[in-house]
Amino acid sequence: MGNLRHFSIIFLAVSFLVFSVGLDSSCKAKEEKEEAMAQLEKAPDIKERLAKLAPTDITYDESLLNEQQKEVLEKLVAAAGYMDKIFWKQASQAGLEIRRQLEQSTDPADKDYLRYLTINFGPFDRLEENKPFIGTQAKLPGVGFYPPDLTKEELENYIAEHPEKKEQLLSHYTVVKRTDGELIAVSYNEAYREELEAAAKYLREAAEITSNPSLKEYLEQRAEDLLRNDYYQSDCDWIDLKDNLVEIVIGPFEVYEDGLMGLKASCEAFVYINDLEEMKKVEGYLNYLEAMQKNLPVEQKYKDQEVGGLESPLNVVIEVFTAGDTKAGVQTSAFVLPNDERVREEKGTKKVFLKNMMEAKFRKSLVPISERVLAAEDAELVSFYGYFTEVMLHEIAHALGVNYVTLPDGTKITVNQALKEYYSAIEEAKATIAGMCNVPLLVEKGLVPAEREKEIYTSYLAGMFRSIRFGVHSAHGLATMMEFNFLREKGAFLYDEETERFKVDFGRVKDAVNELARALLTLQGDGDYEKAGAFIARYGHMDELTKAVLSKLEDIPVDIEPLFSFR
Ligand code: ZN
Question: How far is the CA of 205 from the centre of ligand 1 (A)?
């Protein structure tokens, strides 16, 4: 699809310029504006770009909630909506202007551009490394957080000369402006006052309605924190939420959008319902954490450590609505918050899985993949249950094995320190495999129904193609590649040249998984840097056959475009 990335001239009235329009010159200004916009170009392959994201209804079961909870939910969605408005300002001021023009356009073709602009919160394609699809101007690294022409050097030099302004200028929660050559920090509660006040008002109204004391306290505190630009207390309160169904995460969190300094937090919101039934299942698995550790197919010294539990408790929720940063481009399926180190130390974090979002991605991308690369009888066994169970076990199994290595001289270091740059990929592979090798134990204990066991293996195999589809650059992609090659070598997965399909050999897969678990857990337990490198070199490459199989998947959506019941 790379060859489609040519641009054609458009005749749409759009401009990045700010016009100072005199009373009697508005007509002339309009003409100038149209002239300026005629030069703006639009990517001709907008349909292909849209096709990468399958529009999908994100729904929830309304019968889960009583009347009061429904009212709370509506208020929370209303509050969340303001994060869209703020994130537009943060991500792309220019995009806002283009949006206004597209909304007014009478050209039916512009509907597609407007839709893609809305998905991306601006004219930069988040699925194509932020290259512009409207106009040719590159995305500013500092987006809306800094003056457009500010460089990192200038900011650092300015701070060196004005140390008293350092804290404010580098705060996660300020935007930087330049006035008369001076840099000033404007706090979010001032820069986005209107939106934050409106959001706070809805949070307070929701707090009035709810009868859950922890939710009431959190919402009131969050409203206050949005207005005082200090999120510490309500971040703590979010961790302490209990016995409630409806929840919201709202405010500035992730700093990825700030390409200049990686400091400024983008606004976003998640509104969701706790999935109590699913959480009970996860708790069930966690009750067997010790047993899973004991069950690892390695010598005692590689599983000698007491399993202390998970870094973050696992929450499974049903997403109702999202806004801002998290909704831009590829959708979030899980998040860990808060980011504030002080809260992390005192209270810890929560890991939240958005189950219906995961299911939407599963249906729109993993199922079609499985239908093309798996033998028919295996594709039939691919299920969301199988996929979700594998993902949960991966999360849990990060806690298994050992975290420390004792060096010959007696000093103790972490496995991470020992394996250095190889650690992440080895750890991700370990988590998957230490989870998978415990599936038979969970069947034996009755936590996984025996008749559903095969679904986990076939869904695991299908999911592999989804994660290596975009290369092996990420730790997850590389880990999956290694698992796939190793298990194939051991005969767990078979390829039929005639049908060009893969299938699971159910007679071999368990032994092969155990063998891989032994290899990875031993690498970690020995902290053997050289061996880890050799393992990755041997199993981390993508062979021609795999490339050929992947090339058949190009037209399958890479993600979804969420269509919420609340708009
Ligand atoms: Zn992981």
Answer: 38
Instruction: Give me the domain span that covers residue 538.
Output: 357-567
Q: Calculate how far, in angstroms, residue 429's C-alpha sits from the geometric centre of ligand 1.
A: 8
Specify if 466 maps to a domain: yes
Burial of 518 (0-12, 13-18, 19+ CB in 10 A): middle
Q: What are phi and psi of 282, to 5 degrees?
A: -60, -40
- Give the distance (Å) from ligand 1 centre to CA of residue 442: 20
Instruction: Assess if residue 349 is contained within a domain.
Output: no
Q: Is residue 560 part of a domain?
A: yes
Q: Give the mean pLDDT of the chain.
A: 91
With respect to residue 362, please indicate whether it lies within any of the assigned structural domains: yes
CA-to-CA distance for 80 and 72, rounded, in angstroms? 12
Residue type at 432 in one-letter notation = T
Count the neighbouring beta carbons within 10 Å of the beta carbon of residue 158: 18
Q: What are 412-432's pLDDT values in tens digits?
A: 999 999 999 999 999 999 999
Q: How far is the CA of 432 from the centre of ligand 1 (A)?
A: 8
Neighbours of ion ligand 1 (CB under 5 A): 428, 431
Counted domains in the chain: 1
pLDDT of res. 3? 35
Residue type, 25: S
